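User: Can you help me understand a structure? I only have the sequence.
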Amino acid sequence: MRHTFSEALSGLRRNASMTLAVVVTMWVSLSLFGAGLLAARQVDLLKDRWYDKIEISAFLCVKDVKGDNCDPGQDATDAEKAAVLAAIQQNPETQAVYYESKQDAFAQFKQVFAGSSIEDSLTVDQMQDSYRIKLKNPANYQGLVSEISTMKGVQFVQDLHVYLDPIFMWLNALRWGTIGMSVLLLLAASLQIGNTIRMAAFARRRELGIMRLVGASNIYIMLPFLLESLFAAVLGAALASGTLALGLYTVVVQNAQVSLKGLRWIGWSDAGWAMAGVTGVAIVLSIVPTLIATRRYLRV
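Assistant: Let's start by predicting it. Here is the structure, written out as tokens:
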């Protein structure tokens, strides 16, 4: 093992500039990869938080409000209300439905705007009856919305997915964009590792040939090169892990969690999983290019 470590240190000294370039590339690419993993986890937490609370509200016609499904100057009739309720209850996407009367809506309005200038701007008759619908799977809502939005007596359907889906679309785009850029940089890092090991092996090709002829095993020949690449990869992974920890502390712990306490945020356990993933990727990317780069020197 003394010879193996001596050869690995010698190779690192001879290719110090290339090793430094590999470490920096691994650092940046692994940091982006870990950030993508944390972003993916954060999106999942936000989805669990908001999608679980989403309700669809079907507001019924009143005489002071116009709508394609409403008769001018008339409230929704009892028959229309019953038909809408039956359609909601029979839809397989519905978990529960709650009826909110005009009186209930007016009481909630008075509570929310108590003491403000608009507290007395509306009357009970101007409020709308509505059905509040809880879904079995918040992600499956299109069928129910399309069905009840065209029914007689329904003035409009309020669906929070209209506002939340674009937000999650951009968050997912950010997540995959970060992971995509990190993959490209990781590919560049793996090519750098392969070129560095190939140059080191070429410089020692006569020594490697002699070792092979006298019966040295493939593992014995490759081990110094594996240690060189592992050193660069582990150092890059350590720097990336430190970057992720610093980013989590400054962005999430000190700022996001303080400013937006009502949301679920990623924590240190999530960062730990991301760091483990980053380290695993670094090890794989150091071993595979090394095995490919040195295989030609293992033949007699």
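Now, to help you interpret it: Residues 2-50+165-298 form one domain. The longest strand covers residues 94-100. Let me know which part you'd like to focus on.
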